[in-house]
Amino acid sequence: MTVTKINTASVHRNVAFAQGTLVDPGRRLMFIGGQNGVNSRGVVVGDDTLSQTRQALRNLLAVLAEVGATQENVAKMTVHLTENADFGQAFAASASEWGQHPTAITVLRVAGLANPDFLVEIDAVAAL
């Protein structure tokens, strides 16, 4: 296994993420830049957090697929949500698109992103 999810009983456990991840020695790391809720033509897919988060995660999965990787290879994700983003919708999208592969996640509330229409941006580190 390339990435081992770490969860300890001495820290609150959340089904949405792992408390830590461990990457096996000698693995290559892939750094995936911020993915937004835009389709392949660069068009923002909607004005709501649910649709933008789903698309951002689909984009992330597409980048992983280019090197034969899946969400199981992701060791760390950072989710940036704007002040206008709906936290609940972001987690709902994550549950439906990401599946049962929680990883170490940091969620940040930010004032804004590069495009004022963006509500979410997700970057990740994967171990191959």
UniProtKB/TrEMBL annotation:
SUPFAM superfamilies for this protein: YjgF-like
Domain of life: Bacteria
GO MF annotations in UniProt: deaminase activity
GO cellular component entries: cytosol
CDD domains: YjgF_YER057c_UK114_family
Family to which the UniProt record says this protein belongs: Belongs to the RutC family.
Protein name: Enamine deaminase RidA (YjgF/YER057c/UK114 family)
Organism: Cryobacterium roopkundense
